[in-house]
User: What shape does this take?
Amino acid sequence: HNTIVTARAGKDLVSSLTSGLLTIGDRFGGALDESARQFSSAYDKGKTPLEFVNEMRNSHKYIQGIGHRVKSLNNPDMRVSALADFAKANFPATPLFNYARQVEKITTSKKPNLILNVDGCIATLFVDLLYQTGSFSIEEARDLIDIGCLNALFVAGRSIGFIGHYLDQKRLKQGLYRHPWDDIAI
Assistant: This one.
């Protein structure tokens, strides 16, 4: 949305792109790294999924990668299913992803939309890929997670989408964005 509004205000590509990128944070697109850290830490310490869920609840912290506003057990996210199928067919093993699925069983017993979301799926599968392929030592894998490479991948992909939004606004010669009055008037 910010990229579109900025483009329609007549700003250049870089300004419009950065406007969109600055919306990325813990609530949008920034959950990947923290999800990988949270699940990895609990798994590496030998915590059961129930211990992990209870610890997070007692600490009043969200489990990054769990929960979705629209998707639920009754309305599953097909991206998660597709990624799970791909990993099952192509990864040597998926112990962290399997752990996250066990966490999901606990969280969805409380509320059906507390599913393993696409961020949690990507995060845990990425860690499994780093740990299970033999291409990285455990230390190298942890370093990659700690420096933020998962969120960096999100930013790279999202940047392409933001650029597409910018180009569409310019191609369609859209004028200045005005928010609908009935949405903001008292």
Summary: The chain has a mean pLDDT of 93.
